[in-house]
Design goal:
Blueprint: E1 3-9, E2 16-31, E3 36-43, E4 55-58, E5 61-72, E6 75-84, H1 85-97, E7 110-113, H2 118-123, E8 133-138, E9 153-157, E10 160-161, E11 167-170, E12 174-177, H3 179-183, E13 190-197, E14 200-207, E15 226-229, E16 232-236, H4 239-243, E17 265-270, E18 287-290, E19 293-294, H5 298-306, E20 312-317, E21 322-326, H6 327-340, E22 347-348
Antiparallel strand pairs: 1-2, 1-4, 2-3, 3-6, 4-5, 5-6, 7-8, 8-9, 9-10, 9-13, 11-12, 13-14, 15-16, 15-22, 16-17, 18-19, 18-20, 20-21
């Protein structure tokens, strides 16, 4: 551990806040508002509200910038996460080259498990000196899709052997998740992946595709996308929305998609009106189909509803729930609802 000093503003923005502490760990952690797992410095000094973005210093060197406070048992704010300088440099360099803010850090977009158990290593024909991790699933958006396979053992990345716990050498005598090697690559860069497949070793050069997440992170500088019809407020599912739903499984972030622009579309709210009576408990459910047509994204849902030529509009939701509305009555009700709530437009779609 070595000492650090954090500088930042208070919530009011008129006072400098200085906190002191020690660096306790360097690891990979999920960044709160991006759902991206990257290199992180953990400190025991407090990061208070308003401190985020301030410099964290040790001696005459900058360690990074304050990111977020973290829970430690039942205590909040007793330690925090810091974005280290290598991540900042990578972000700045990549931002100058890439047009998409979602395509900065490399990723293979796959799930895997450790191989610390002797029996599973024997099952997959690993020799005693071999180490690595077992691939469970590869997302269709991954550059490794149809190159690597389920049940492949990833032995090494760019010649760096992966431990049975999924970690690789880091700095002096430390170890860190092998994902760090991949995240520090830029989109379209290639990595050399060594795998064991059915007892035989193979090597593949894999291009890290820039992947735009279907479950998007919150873009605070953009107007949120929405569409209102019959009092139902439809929105694309975002990471922030998921965080507010304690019952929704986080694995939805890694779903497979049939279309490159596919989104989950959710009913975020039901604005009370006679037209939607009895449907108020259908909030937070995904819209699967409109009149039998699978919904690709929010724009597609809007087109399907606006172009409806039937007497009744049918929406099929998750959990096999169903909404049926008289189309002309629902169209009329939409204007009444917008006027009642002083909403200028029935949609705002990015």
């Amino acid at each position: 551990m070595f000492p650090q000093v954090s500088y930042g503003l208070t919530r009011t923005g008129d006072t400098i806040c200085v906190t002191k502490g020690f660096v306790t760990e360097v690891c990979t952690e999920i960044y709160l508002r991006s759902s991206t797992k990257l290199l992180t410095i953990q400190i025991d000094g407090t990061i208070n509200g308003g401190n985020s973005g301030g410099p964290v210093i040790t001696g005459n060197k900058v360690l990074g910038v304050a990111l977020q406070s973290c829970k430690s048992g039942k205590r909040i704010g007793t330690h925090g996460d810091v974005i280290p300088t290598p991540i900042i440099r990578h972000f700045i360099a990549s931002s100058a080259e890439e047009s998409s803010q979602n395509a900065i850090f490399g990723s293979l977009i796959l799930s895997y498990q450790s191989l610390e158990n002797d029996h599973i290593r024997d099952h997959f024909k690993m020799s005693p000196e071999m180490t690595g991790v077992l691939i469970n699933k590869i997302n269709s958006s991954s550059g490794a899709y149809k190159i690597l396979r389920k049940n492949d053992i990833i032995l090494a990345i760019d010649g760096v052997p992966i431990g049975l716990d999924g970690k690789v050498p880091f700095r002096n005598e430390e170890r860190i998740s092998f994902n760090h090697l991949i995240s520090m690559k830029k989109p379209y860069e290639k990595i050399l992946v060594k795998v064991l497949r059915k007892g035989k070793e193979h090597e593949y050069n894999i291009s890290l595709k820039p992947v735009k997440p279907h479950i998007s992170v919150q873009q605070y500088y953009n107007i949120p996308s929405y569409y209102i019809f019959g009092g139902f407020v439809f929105v694309p599912l975002t990471k922030l929305y998921i965080d507010d739903l304690s019952y929704m499984c986080g694995c939805v972030l890694h779903d497979q998609y049939e279309f490159t622009d596919e989104q989950h579309v959710i009913i975020s709210q039901v604005m009370s009106h006679d037209i939607n009576q009895g449907y108020s408990d259908l909030e937070d459910l995904q819209v699967k189909k409109v009149n039998g047509v699978k919904v690709k994204n929010l724009k597609h849902l809007c087109e399907l509803i606006e172009g409806c030529c039937r007497k009744n509009l049918r929406l099929d939701l998750e959990d096999d729930k169903v909404i049926v509305l008289n189309y002309k009555s629902a169209k009329k009700a939409t204007f009444e609802i917008l006027e009642r709530h002083n909403i200028k437009s029935a949609w705002a779609i990015e």
